[in-house]
Amino acid sequence: MSNHAKISDAEWVIMEQLWKNSPLTSAEIIDQLKDSTEWNPKTIHTLINRLVKKEVLGVKREGRFKQFYPLLSAEECRKRETTSFLKKIYSGSRQMFILNFIKNEKLTNTEIEELRKILNQKKDEN
């Protein structure tokens, strides 16, 4: 996946199916999405083909069927999307994002403690 290739919201739905279970044929992906989306099979095929072109999905032939599998982990895609989001919305500033998040979100005591733990671990790493 090139650094400029973004995964759309619709493409992300396809990826989530494949991160849960892969490889899958397009027919299997269509079957899994029939209850949660109103997309027709042609739309799903188009999304799969876009993901292959973006080098996010790989393809292997099993007999007369193509099976699709992720080339990147969900974590790697999340990391890339986060970096892109930070650049776009916060000019790349993690600090601005974190401060904005903490100021504007209602956090439970458990979440606050988890954040403290993570920050203390980061502090110790430096």
Automatic annotation (TrEMBL):
Family assignment from sequence similarity: Belongs to the BlaI transcriptional regulatory family.
A GO MF label: DNA binding
One Pfam short name: Penicillinase_R
Entry keyword set: DNA-binding, Transcription, Transcription regulation
Organism: Chengkuizengella marina
Upper taxonomic lineage: Bacteria, Bacillati, Bacillota, Bacilli, Bacillales
GO biological process: negative regulation of DNA-templated transcription
Protein name as catalogued: BlaI/MecI/CopY family transcriptional regulator
Keyword DNA-binding: yes
